[in-house]
Amino acid sequence: MSVMGHPSFAAYSGSPSSASGNLTVVDKVPPDMMHLVDAYWYQFPPMNPLWHGILGFVIGCLGVVSIIGNGMVLYIFASTKSLKTPSNLLVVNLAFSDFCMMFTMAFPMVVNCYYETWVWGPLFCGLYGMFGSLFGCISIWTMACIALDRYNVIVKGLSAKPFTKKSALLWILGVWLFSTGWTIAPFFGWNRYVPEGNMAACGTDYLNKDWLSRSYIIVYGIFVYFLPLMLIVYCYFFIVQAVAAHEKSMREQAKKMNVASLRSSEAQATSAECKLAKIALMTIALWFFAWTPYLIVNFTGIFGSSKITPLATIWCSLFAKANACYNPIVYGISHPKYRQALEKKFPSLVCAGSTIKDDAQSTTSGVTQVSEGEKAAA
């Protein structure tokens, strides 16, 4: 149906309760979407129109922030020679994924919140759900790749296999193929994409009690949530351990030499890699804070352990999408070399004193190789 004008939904009362005069959250759903709506949602009254207005406003603001923020990250990393490193290709892929997430998610949901139901038809409902799942999957596995890269540099040291641009591109290609395979599966009968509880967005069907449908949510959760989480925890456990051991040896050596510190320009290289690892860890933590509530909703749905409300589903979904806004902010605050490039290209955005330094003396690093002496010490 057309999304233009002000359609009347009086004829769309396809729910059982509407015949008795009781309104439900399903009453405004267009007829061509009714086969996708689970009977579970018929028990809920319509959401207050104010909630739709708030949701539309929030997703619209998040969309603007994410598109501008991640667009700037892509532009700066692409146009700054010192940032064109193999490791930063992973960062660029993360920013591109976040950019695409909100570019495809924000506008359709704003329109649906205005009409208080899904108005784009079944095909776009499936595509909307797929895009949200696809870019979320790409984000987490890109972060897992970043963690592996940091582990390779900081923990393995001299024994590490050099991380080249070819390696980075192969990793990125693998992430996209892996994510695409998982997210197109519902189009071939393994689960499906259906309207969320407030009928203004679409996602996986976590209310279907059929075990084929349930198995998709369980296996998807394992490979797209728990597996990358364990991989990241493994990498950062040994990264922290290696950094702690290095710092301890530095302090002991300084004590023997009766000096305050052994920090030098060489030592700053390892310190820079550690700073980059901290940035990646912060980004990853934000991802899990954002997506965990939505995972809980999905698992609650398939196991039926408690009641899920339309408002809860959409806020958890919105919270997950908001993750696309965090990364440009994290890098803007925590990545000195990115901040320097941002200050050069967009000086009007600087709200503090100049932070520009000569690149040769910058303590940040986008490189993947640490000086040999520091690798040996680590």
UniProtKB/TrEMBL annotation:
<keyword id="KW-0600">Photoreceptor protein</keyword>
<dbReference type="InterPro" id="IPR027430">
    <property type="entry name" value="Retinal_BS"/>
</dbReference>
<dbReference type="GO" id="GO:0009881">
    <property type="term" value="F:photoreceptor activity"/>
</dbReference>
<keyword id="KW-0325">Glycoprotein</keyword>
<dbReference type="InterPro" id="IPR000276">
    <property type="entry name" value="GPCR_Rhodpsn"/>
</dbReference>
<keyword id="KW-1015">Disulfide bond</keyword>
<feature type="transmembrane region" description="Helical">
    <location>
        <begin position="89"/>
        <end position="107"/>
    </location>
</feature>
<keyword id="KW-0157">Chromophore</keyword>
<dbReference type="GO" id="GO:0007602">
    <property type="term" value="P:phototransduction"/>
</dbReference>
<protein>
    <submittedName>
        <fullName>Long wavelength sensitive opsin</fullName>
    </submittedName>
</protein>
<dbReference type="InterPro" id="IPR001760">
    <property type="entry name" value="Opsin"/>
</dbReference>
<comment type="similarity">
    <text>Belongs to the G-protein coupled receptor 1 family. Opsin subfamily.</text>
</comment>
<dbReference type="InterPro" id="IPR001391">
    <property type="entry name" value="Opsin_lateye"/>
</dbReference>
<feature type="transmembrane region" description="Helical">
    <location>
        <begin position="168"/>
        <end position="189"/>
    </location>
</feature>
<keyword id="KW-0807">Transducer</keyword>
<keyword id="KW-0812">Transmembrane</keyword>
<dbReference type="GO" id="GO:0004930">
    <property type="term" value="F:G protein-coupled receptor activity"/>
</dbReference>
<keyword id="KW-0681">Retinal protein</keyword>
<feature type="transmembrane region" description="Helical">
    <location>
        <begin position="217"/>
        <end position="245"/>
    </location>
</feature>
<keyword id="KW-0716">Sensory transduction</keyword>
<keyword id="KW-0472">Membrane</keyword>
<feature type="transmembrane region" description="Helical">
    <location>
        <begin position="50"/>
        <end position="77"/>
    </location>
</feature>
<dbReference type="Pfam" id="PF00001">
    <property type="entry name" value="7tm_1"/>
</dbReference>
<feature type="transmembrane region" description="Helical">
    <location>
        <begin position="127"/>
        <end position="148"/>
    </location>
</feature>
<keyword id="KW-0297">G-protein coupled receptor</keyword>
<dbReference type="GO" id="GO:0007601">
    <property type="term" value="P:visual perception"/>
</dbReference>
<dbReference type="InterPro" id="IPR017452">
    <property type="entry name" value="GPCR_Rhodpsn_7TM"/>
</dbReference>
<keyword id="KW-0675">Receptor</keyword>
<dbReference type="GO" id="GO:0016020">
    <property type="term" value="C:membrane"/>
</dbReference>
<keyword id="KW-0844">Vision</keyword>
<feature type="domain" description="G-protein coupled receptors family 1 profile">
    <location>
        <begin position="69"/>
        <end position="331"/>
    </location>
</feature>
<dbReference type="InterPro" id="IPR050125">
    <property type="entry name" value="GPCR_opsins"/>
</dbReference>
<feature type="transmembrane region" description="Helical">
    <location>
        <begin position="279"/>
        <end position="297"/>
    </location>
</feature>
<keyword id="KW-1133">Transmembrane helix</keyword>
